[in-house]
Amino acid sequence: MKFTKSLNIDFKALLPYLVAIGLFLIMSVVYVHPILGGKQLLQPDIVKFQGMAKEISDFRDVTGQEALWTNSMFGGMPAFQISVIWKYNIANFFHNVMTLWLPRPADMIFLYFAGFFLFLILLKVNPWVALIGAMAFAFSSYHFIIIQAGHNSKAVAIAYMAPVLASVIYTFRGKLLAGGILFAIFMGLQVFSNHYQITYYLGIMVFFYGLFELYRHMKEKQLPRFFKGLAVLVGGLIIALGINIGSLWSTFTFAEESMRGGSEITIGDREPTEGLSMDYITQWSYGVGETFSLLIPNVKGGATGALGNNPVAMEEVEPAFRRIVAMFNHYWGEQPFTSGPVYVGAIVLFLFFLGVFYVKGPLKWGLLLSTILSIMLSWGYNFPSFTAFFIEHIPLYDSFRAVTMILVIAELAIPAIAVLFLHQMVLNPGMLKWNSREFLAALALTAGLALVFYLLPTTFFSFTNNRDQEIIAGLIAQNPQAADQIRIHLPSLLENARIAVFQADAIRSFLFIVAAAGAVLLFATKKIKVFAFLLILGALITLDMWPVNKRYLNEGHFQPRRNVVTPFRPTEANLQILQDRDLHFRVFNTTVNTFNESSTSWFHRSIGGYHGAKLQRFQDIIDFHLSGEQINMNVLNMLNTKYFIVPGEDQQPQVLLNPDAMGNAWFVADLRMVENADEEILALNDFNPDSTAIVDRRFSAYVEGFSLEPDTLASIQLMEYAPNRLRYQYQTATRQIAVFSEIFYPHDWKVTLNGEPAENFRANYILRAMVIPAGSGEIIFEFRPASYFTGSRIAWSFSALILLLSAVYLWFQYKKHRNKAGNQMTDI
After folding, report:
1. Cα separation of 582 and 592, whole Å?
2. Within 13 Å, how many C-alpha atoms sit on residue 357's CB side?
3. Residue whose C-alpha is closest to residue 576's, from 641, 639, 643
4. pTM (predicted TM-score)
5. What tens digit of pLDDT does each residue of 162-204 get?
6. Is 384 buried (19+), middle (13-18) or exposed (0-12) by CB count in 10 A?
7. Cα separation of 667 and 673, whole Å?
8. Contact 548, 481 (CB under 8 A)
9. How far apart are CA 663 and CA 740, in angstroms?
10. 558-560 and 586-589: which strand pairing?
11. Residue 772's beta-bridge partner residues?
């Protein structure tokens, strides 16, 4: 008894936390239960990642080192945004702790639960209410859609949004040391997740909350307290950035050269850009009507797929037309395609509106304005003036595409406000009356709206789109004899099928909200106890949201482990090319979507590839020389494209050898100077790479006063190859200019000539070149980015600092509680 008292452990107080962790574990594993049988989730984007990272991971497995550069796609590019392990970043350890070392994808689901639960606990929400709140947040449909797609870094970044925001709030509420340490840890984890678009959106939420917090402190004449908290957060941010300095430094350097950095080309209608174009940014834009998916998941049909897979829809179609209607898209929204809607839960949305009316304080207003802004910005090209303003005037907004992603703000803010209301109601059940304007308004804005949509669907929504009209026109052209029948009957049958899909979800949402509203009223009138109320509400939220998520991530997405670990099977063409033992050459695969796939990169060093932020100069080469009907063979030859994979007569891939591939390096007899990027890229249309190098005037200093002296016996040859190290031998009787079939990257490639530092310059728009003196010797190119090597040492220092600060804080907390327990024993 004395021992227990000295430890001062209140097991009753710990119970909700233990129950929460246990329940989160069970739900996370049960949802993905095929992993218990040895299966793994087949994620399309991870399959693509495996292809593009194959050379990097193979090098790591063989050498134990990081490649940092890969030649497996787009001729070559840094590996920073593909697959680099930052060993000295303590965030690796913290992330494993937060996910309890669970297997994927159970780890990400658990992190959704744990992150939001911690957010609510730091806000001092009742732990039982926080448990329900964690479920409400975690079960948002988009969270499961991105797991199925393989957007793992995005999922992790989303999961860490809530604890970062909580640590900011905790700090401003006066818990400076604890708040600052927590902010440093969770902001470090947020940056570690390596999805800066989500981090940017989190910054918007923190900014709005900070404005209202500043106003509150000004009103209460507590500005020094505000700035003290702000200073602590700045310190925490420095530590968070410090432990991630390597990846941040590398990304910043790479971004300047990537598509995010823009292009110099001004040919035709193009203008020099410093970010992504509005068309590219807004290609995925939420329709204004599609926003109602927050309330009704199938408001626009859910995910892209065949309408024939939905038996409810097919029941509304005459048998004679079912085969045709079945081919139409189940999704009829405005996006090019989608994996599913952003559904935050009908019950959660109902509680959110109650929270808007009842919850007070700066946090509510910051969350509410962030939600409204995120919805408006998600409309993209459907609200062009507002979107254009942000692209043109808000810093860094033009660096990110797919504006629909900003709805992650609403997905966090809506359940947060809902749970803050729930917490208040648990403390004061009598605060809500069934006939109050607030309760009736929340009910009307959710259940009422769902019912009206169910009863009058065509009054508010269209159930066809332009793509449907194009398909119908094509069917009429193919079957002119049935044109009248198709024109008259098919559109109405298609509309009826989609209305059935829509109505099924509309009435579903209505019924769940009515049931939840009933539970709220029963608790408000003290007909049921708090435990029963929370149990009913948690069950209703789970019954609502779990089945919706199963539409997008279910048992059918799991495959035997061998299919996931080795997702690509070699064709005869792949096997034939793999027989070639040359150190280094490239492959152009025309049997696939060359510049948006990674299967070729799994087997070979590819001209194509898959990456959302390839080097801008290579994208320019694709746009001007490697796409459309005219493929510039001069460009492919200078890229040492030794093999083409093309469709055979039997549609099986076959191999063509390119005898004109230039090899790994060669000497040129002529230089052609050009004035700018426009002239340089156009000059590639009419030149012989074997004899001529095209050089931008900006590199003239490297060849100034240089006269080419031919030597027909001169030679240069690649002797050793690694993705980050290339060794050449050369022999020449005269000075030469060598062109290397390697992508020029202006940062961190170190070149030595016979052991002495040397310099290289850009030629032919994307390749490397350098002056070679008479004689013989060796040239070594080595990729040694300071961001990795120096950055690792800096990260280690900041990792040690956060561990030290955490240890000091825990030690003082331990002493404080031990002294408190000792005083209690003395009193006894």
Report:
1. 24
2. 18
3. 643
4. 0.91
5. 999 999 999 999 999 999 999 999 999 999 999 999 999 999 9
6. middle
7. 17
8. no
9. 9
10. unpaired
11. 736
- pLDDT for the residue numbered 826: 44
Q: What tens digit of pLDDT does each residue of 461-505 get?
A: 999 988 888 888 888 888 888 888 888 888 899 999 999 999 999
The C-alpha atoms of residue 56 and residue 41 are separated, in whole angstroms, by 22
Residue 457 identity? P
The residue ranges of every structural domain in the chain are: 1-31+86-257+785-828, 46-82+574-661, 260-417+425-528, 665-680+687-784
In whole angstroms, what is the distance from residue 331 CA to residue 337 CA?
A: 8
Question: For the segment 248-267, what is each residue's pLDDT rounded down to a tens digit?
Answer: 999 999 988 998 888 899 98
Residue 1 has pLDDT above 80, yes or no: no
Spatial CB neighbours of 711, under 8 Å, sequence gap ≥ 6: 667, 732, 733, 734, 736
* Number of neighbouring beta carbons within 10 Å of residue 799: 22
Reading the block at residue 338, the tokens are 């989608």
**Is residue 822 very low, low, confident or very high in pLDDT (cuts 50, 70, 90)?**
low
Length of the chain: 828
Comparing 257-271, 552-566, 667-681, the range with the smallest average pLDDT is 257-271
Q: How many other C-beta atoms lie within 10 A of the C-beta of residue 125?
A: 22
Q: Is 755 exposed, middle or buried (0-12, 13-18, 19+ CB in 10 A)?
A: exposed
Q: Give the pLDDT score at 438.
A: 94
Q: What are phi and psi of 700, to 5 degrees?
A: -65, -30
Q: Euclidean distance between the first and final Cα of the chain, in Å?
A: 12
The chain-wide mean pLDDT, for the chain, equals 93
97-to-102, 382, 410, 800, 802 alpha-carbon distances in Å: 10, 42, 27, 17, 15
Q: Residue for token digits 């090019």?
A: 336
Read off φ and ψ for residue 736, nearest 5 degrees.
Answer: -135, 165
Q: Is 122 left (phi over 0), alpha (psi -120 to 50) or beta?
A: alpha
Token pair, residue 664, equals 């790994």
Average pLDDT (810-817) is: 84
For residue 605, how many other CB atoms are within 10 A of its CB?
Answer: 23
Are 350 and 443 a contacting pair, CB within 8 Å?
A: yes
User: Cis link prior to 689 (omega < 30° from 0)?
Assistant: no
Q: Does the pLDDT at position 615 exceed 70?
A: yes
Residue pair 395/480 in contact by the 8 Å Cβ criterion: no
Residue (of 276, 732, 314) closest to 496 by Cα position: 314
CB 28 within 8 A of CB 39: no
Paired tokens of 337: 């395609």
CB-count burial class (<10 Å; 0-12, 13-18, 19+) for 23: middle
**Separation CA 744–CA 783 (nearest Å):** 12
653: β partners: 647
Dist. CA 217–CA 174, nearest whole Å: 12
Instruction: Report the C-alpha gap between 651 and 648 in whole angstroms.
Output: 5
pLDDT band at 743 (very low <50, low <70, confident <90, very high): very high
* Residue carrying the six token digits 């990257």: 745
Contact 130, 120 (CB under 8 A): yes
Write the CA distances from 596 to 455, 476, 619, integer angstroms. Answer: 44, 33, 12
Class of domain 665-680+687-784: mainly beta
